[in-house]
Every structure is written in C-alpha cells, then in structure tokens.
Design brief:
The strands form four sheets. This protein has a five-stranded mixed sheet with strand order 4-3-5-13-6, with helices on both faces. The chain folds into three domains: 72 residues, Arc Repressor Mutant, subunit A, CATH 1.10.10; 101 residues, Periplasmic binding protein-like II (D-Maltodextrin-Binding Protein, domain 2); 99 residues, 3-Layer(aba) Sandwich (D-Maltodextrin-Binding Protein, domain 2), CATH 3.40.190.290. Helices cover 43% and strands 23% of the residues. A hairpin with a 6-residue loop joins strand 1 and strand 2. It has eleven helices and 13 strands. By secondary structure, it is an alpha/beta fold. It comes from Martelella mangrovi.
C-alpha cells in the first residue's frame, strides 16, 4: 500500500486501536466522543482497504475478538503510537522546552523502597519532567509494556525472551524481617529451620515471592503459622514492625524511611537470589526521559550489593 493511502487511514487506525482495547464499538465511541456507527464504519473501511477481517464479531456479551490479522495490526499500531510519543518529546527538546513524560511500571515493593530516591534525583535534574507511575505485579506490568501504556518496566521475574530488552539486572538477597525486639533480630544470618512455628505474614499468591516461599518451606520441611496474607508490602512491613509476625522480602533498599524492623539474611540453598530487572519492549525507540531513568537505574545497580 502506498504511503499516502496509509496516511489517509490514520483516523481509522486510531479507532481500531480503541475498539481493540475497549472490546466494543460503543465503549470506543464513548472514549473518542463520536457515534458508534461512525466507529463501525471506519473499521469496515479499514478492513476493506487492507483486505482482511480485523475482528470476530460475536453476539451478546461475547463482544469483539481480534482475528490473527487484527493482532498483527494492533502490535504494529502500538509500536507506531510509541514512536509518535517519542517524536513529540524529541521535537519539544529541539525547541528548548526540555519537557518530557516518563511512563513507568514498577512492582509494589519497589514503589515504596527504591523508586522515591530515583525519582527525587530525576526531578532535581529534570524539573519539568512529568511522570505516570503504574504499580503492578509483573504480568500486568508486562501487559502494559506491550500495549504501550508504559515505556519502562522495573520488577522481578522478567522473562528472558527476545520480546524484552533488559537494560539492567541486579541479583538480590532474600531477608527474614522481624520486629527489633525479636530473638533473631540481632543475627546477621539465619536458616529457614530456625523460623519453624513462627507467626508468618505471607505475600499474596498473585505475587512471585509467595510461590517462592511456599516451595522453599516445602523443600526445607519448615512449618510456619500463617497469620495474614496481603498484596501490599507496605502493610506487610508495617505489621511486622507492629509485632504481628515475621515475614520475608527480597532486598532492602528502604531509601524512603528507616523502619523499626530487622533484616536477617536467609542462607539456605532452597532460597534463590531473585533478579530485579529494568526492561522495555525490544526494538522501540527510547524517549529521552526513559533513557535518563534507565541510566539512573544502571548507576544504582552498579554500586548496590543486593
């Protein structure tokens, strides 16, 4: 197809992306503030131009599903949208505005420990930079990366595939955390068997750490007393600090504030050192703001021991 024909279809492509994301013509129409019939017509024109069907049009609540051709087009459109965002930032830089937008996804534990210090440094160097920070578990964060909602992801258990470009990686130790007055609090290291019978605060099953601890306890024959489960590491640490029980976390940045909890390294071979990774979608041009963020992460990882 000639480039002029592609450019003439840009409104249709925009409506296609919205329909694919919302799952219906009506929801997409509400989002772009036009009639559903107009959105449907634009999609039909796009399908005729490309010579393919983009959606499987189900009935009732089944809604719309992308065909294989639709999946391919959505992937390419997402890349184009990302490039346009980068181009806009570069044009702003060219005119001396020096204003950008960092779109970042991060695991919840890092949002309270590692991230505030990084953002403070960025804000000092780039005072006009805007931020969109999405706090997600790793699968949801990767989905946002694919959709182009965020540009950089920072989290655990990033798959080492060609889909993602790993910008920096840090292997982190696993720690038992206890109140300051706990009998193990003054120890530097501890084995899993030493926490048998302890009241234990578990991370939620939706989090990678939950399965890691569950498997390690089984391999080591350790039996703890579950007293609470939460998907918030902020609440988990607060409850440990209050003496409700003990727990485990990966790493110990704690740049935001000093908490009244003790960190004791777990030395058992049953506990693997987990990799913290900073990544983006491979092949996409990085914006100036994301390049600055990844440079800050690389510098931090280079000086940090885990």
């Amino acid at each position: 197809m000639a480039s002029s024909a592609v450019l003439s279809r840009l409104p249709s492509l925009r409506y296609f992306v919205e329909v694919a994301r919302e799952g219906s013509f009506r929801a997409a129409a509400d989002k772009v503030n036009i009639a559903p019939s107009a959105v449907s017509k634009q999609i039909k024109n796009l399908e005729e131009t490309l010579g393919v069907e983009l959606f499987i049009r189900g009935r009732g609540r089944a809604g719309l599903e992308l065909t294989e051709a639709g999946e391919i087009l959505l992937h390419r459109c997402t890349s184009v949208i990302n490039e346009l965002v980068v181009a806009r930032e570069e044009l702003q830089e060219l005119h001396g505005i020096q204003r950008g937008h960092l779109r970042l996804g991060v695991n919840e534990a890092l949002a309270t420990d590692l991230l505030p210090g990084i953002l403070n440094n960025l804000h000092r160097n780039y005072p006009n930079l805007k931020y969109t920070i999405m706090v997600e578990n790793t699968p949801d964060m990767l989905a946002r990366l694919r959709d182009g909602d965020i540009e950089i992801g920072l989290g655990y258990n990033i798959p080492m595939t060609g889909e993602f470009e790993i910008l920096a990686t840090l292997k982190r130790r696993t720690y038992l955390i206890t109140p300051r007055n706990h009998p193990l609090a003054k120890r530097q290291r501890v084995k899993l068997e030493e926490i048998t019978g302890e009241k234990f605060i578990f991370p939620d099953p939706s989090l990678t750490l939950h399965q890691m601890l569950h498997d390690a306890f089984i391999r080591s024959g350790v039996d703890v007393r579950p007293i609470m489960t939460t998907n918030s590491f902020t609440l988990l640490r607060q409850m440990v600090e209050n003496g409700m029980g003990v727990s485990m976390v990966i790493g110990r940045f704690l740049q935001r504030r000093t908490e009244q909890i003790a960190f004791i390294e777990i030395t058992d071979a049953a506990i693997d050192r987990k990799a913290l990774s900073c990544c983006r979608i491979a092949g996409r041009t990085p914006s100036i703001s994301s390049a600055a963020f990844s440079a800050g992460i690389k510098a931090l990882f280079a000086q940090y021991g885990g």
